[in-house]
Amino acid sequence: MVTWLKKKQKQNQTMKFQLNKKEECLTILMEECGEVIQEASKIMRFGNDASKLTKELGDLQYMINLTANHLGIDSVSIGVHANEKREKLKKYSNLIDK
Ligand SMILES: [Mg+2]
Predict the structure, then answer these.
(1) How far is the CA of 68 from the centre of ligand 1 (A)?
(2) Distance, CA 59 to ligand 1 centroid (Å)?
(3) Which sign, positive or negative, has the C-alpha torsion 33, 39, 40, 41?
(4) CA-CA distance, 9 to 1, in Å (whole number)?
(5) In angstroms, rounded to a whole number, what is the distance separating the alpha carbons of residues 12 and 4?
(6) C-alpha 3: how far from its chain's center?
(7) Ligand 1 centroid to 52 CA: how many Å?
(8) This model's pTM is above 0.70
(9) 32 C-alpha vs ligand 1 centroid, how far in Å?
(10) SS (H, E, C) the chain
């Protein structure tokens, strides 16, 4: 096999073990987002109860907080955006009482 390809493959094999804390945090955050999507889908498709979704929402909530800490995002800024989302939902959905 071509030497540069062998080097690249070896580099790729070792990279997964060399994630820094920020990268690891973002990766797990993405995984938890996927798990929430999966459980929401199962409720829609099969009428599952919310117990597994509850667990995954807890996992995601923790990862959101941890990611904010690792990336230096302050909780006040997140709160501002959450309030903006609430206002959008008031306007464009029936989820929030007006
Ligand atoms: Mg999970």
Answers:
(1) 18
(2) 5
(3) positive
(4) 11
(5) 12
(6) 38
(7) 9
(8) yes
(9) 5
(10) CCHHHHHHHHHHHHHCCCCCHHHHHHHHHHHHHHHHHHHHHHHHHHCCCCHHHHHHHHHHHHHHHHHHHHHCCCHHHHHHHHHHHHHHHHHHCCCCCC
> Tokens 């994630």 belong to which residue?
19
Residue with tokens 């690792």: 70
pLDDT tens digits along 47-78: 999 999 999 999 999 999 999 999 999 999 99
User: How far is Cα 83 from Cα 39, in angstroms, rounded to an integer?
Assistant: 25
d(CA 46, CA 57) in angstroms, rounded, equals 19
Ligand 1 centroid – CA 96 distance (Å): 27
Identify the structural domains of the chain with CATH numbers, from first to last.
Answer: 19-92 (1.10.287)
- The chain-wide mean pLDDT, for the chain, equals 92
Tokens 């498709």 -> residue:
45
Report how far ligand 1's centroid is from the alpha carbon of 41 (Å): 15
